[in-house]
Amino acid sequence: MKIKHYFLVVAAFLLMIQLSSCVDIDRKIKINANGSGNEKQVLHVDKMFYDMLISLVNSMDSTKSAGLRDSLYNHEDMIGKVREDYANKIGIKLNRIEGVTNPDSSSTYYLDYDFDKVEYIGKSTNINPENIEKGSENTEVKWEDKGNEIKFTLKNINTSEDNSDESKKDAGFLFTGKKMKISIEFPYDIKSTNAMMKEGRTAEWLFDMTELSSNPSSLYLEAVLKK
């Protein structure tokens, strides 16, 4: 088995939440009244994450760990298929996708895209090339117009049968202390929400990555908007 393919298999096994190749995530989303909008993501990967992943792979099969570090830092290899996929994706316009290695050997990925429908938010956030190839969708987004109100929801719908207790435990320690922040600017006033913070028409959710890795269904966003 090639190193690159082995990494993708391990990544799919360990990182089973919707954003599978990162450990610190900052998502800023703006939704327009017609359901279109923009999202900007910053995904940060600590050097410690790479070190632990390599150590884990080495403990499983030492013959597969040689050259893995170079593969992990090959950003174009990681995002190239995403760029290619988005080139023909209807309803989504990719403005920027880039991966850089920082001076401290951590990595940062940048993603900026426009969407025609709010539902496409759930179809554009997985930068794992293995999942892109399979066309998998791990989140469901709804924008329900109820006349005077709009109900927005985003939830994880990952039903993988491989999400065993042991694999959850293995993934959990890789995300210790890491967070995913989702900030959404809505086109209407927020009547109610399960967000941690609300300021004007913007709501902000903060999720513990360890919790998400062990319980993906904990990813649930809800906001009721007053038109």
How would you characterize this protein structure?
Mean pLDDT is 76; it is low at 1-22 and 125-136. The termini are far apart. The protein has one domain (3-11, 24-226). The protein has a seven-stranded mixed beta sheet. A hairpin with a 2-residue loop joins strand 9 (197-199) and strand 10 (202-208). The radius of gyration is 18 Å and the shape is globular. The protein has helices at 3-14, 47-60, 68-72, 75-87, 129-134, 165-172, 209-214, and strands at 24-31, 37-45, 92-101, 107-115, 139-145, 149-156, 179-185, 189-193, 197-199, 202-208, 220-226. The longest helix is centred in the first third of the chain and has 14 residues, at 47-60. The protein is of the alpha+beta class.
How many strands? 11
The number of distinct helices, counting runs of at least 4 residues, comes to 7
Which percent range describes the beta-strand content? 35-45%
Alpha carbon gap, first and last residue: 55 Å
Largest sheet: 7 strands, mixed
Gist of the model:
This protein has 227 residues and is an alpha+beta fold.
Tags for this model:
227 residues; 7-stranded mixed β-sheet; 4-stranded antiparallel β-sheet; 7 helices; 28% helix; globular; disordered N terminus
